[in-house]
């Protein structure tokens, strides 16, 4: 277990910059029983629905992450804001947990909060702990044609996982 200090921060403190958080790449970490995996995510939303702060992560059905998150109630998102973990983001964005134990190979330091068994990856600047409250499979026919052609040429659709943001931590 990594030895780190976490300070709870108000979601609104990071709201101004949230739109730029994910396109630079973040770690979406999932766990099912004793299997822990992380993948790079570049898309996602942070917003407000059902009277809650919500983070939505889109996961294509072909991902190992899809298998794990389907069988879990929580996920975490760890965000590097200072260009750290570039090599690791590339690896976790191109290699599947089906074939690699990415966390072991990269020696990613995990840290378990008291909120869920799904760990965060320390060495990142911002961590979201999310409890899944809604999920939805995309329907290709509901998407505008130009988005279909550009993003889903093989119809490998995303499922959207909406997590209530239980806590946001800044690593200090
Ligand atoms: C910068 C970047 C952003 C990515 N964003 C997403 C994403 O938002 N959703 C997704 O399903 N895959 C995304 N991927 C692809 C997955 O990270 C990649 O397929 C990964 O190998 C899946 O790992 P897994 O099979 O262990 O879940 C992204 C890859 C990169 C490099």
UniProtKB/TrEMBL annotation:
Q: Which InterPro entries match?
A: Flavin_Rdtase-like_dom (IPR002563), Flavoredoxin (IPR052174), Split_barrel_FMN-bd (IPR012349)
Pfam families for this protein:
Flavin_Reduct
Q: Which GO terms describe its molecular function?
A: FMN binding; oxidoreductase activity, acting on the CH-NH group of donors, NAD or NADP as acceptor
| Superkingdom | Bacteria
Please report the stretch or stretches of sequence annotated as the Flavin reductase like domain: 27-168
User: Sorted alphabetically, which SUPFAM superfamilies does this protein's record hold?
Assistant: FMN-binding split barrel (SSF50475)
Family of the protein in this entry: Belongs to the flavoredoxin family.
Which PANTHER family does its entry note?
A: FLAVOREDOXIN-RELATED-RELATED, HYPOTHETICAL CYTOSOLIC PROTEIN
Its name, as the record gives it, is NADH-FMN oxidoreductase RutF, flavin reductase (DIM6/NTAB) family
């Amino acid at each position: 277990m990594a030895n780190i200090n976490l300070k709870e921060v108000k979601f609104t403190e990071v709201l101004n910059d949230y739109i730029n958080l994910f396109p630079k790449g973040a770690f979406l970490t999932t766990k099912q029983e004793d299997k822990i995996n992380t993948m790079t995510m570049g898309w996602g939303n942070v917003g407000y629905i059902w009277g809650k702060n919500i983070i939505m992560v889109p996961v294509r059905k072909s991902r190992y992450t899809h298998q794990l998150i389907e069988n879990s109630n929580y996920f975490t998102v760890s965000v590097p804001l200072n260009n750290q973990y570039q090599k690791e983001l590339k690896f976790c964005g191109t290699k599947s947990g089906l074939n690699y134990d990415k966390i072991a190979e990269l020696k990613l330091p995990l840290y378990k909060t008291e909120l869920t068994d799904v760990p965060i990856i320390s060495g990142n600047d911002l961590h979201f702990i999310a409890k899944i409250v809604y999920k939805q499979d995309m329907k290709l026919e509901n998407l505008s044609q130009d988005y279909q052609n550009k993003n889903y040429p093989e119809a490998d659709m995303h499922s959207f996982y909406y997590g209530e943001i239980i806590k946001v931590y800044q690593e200090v």
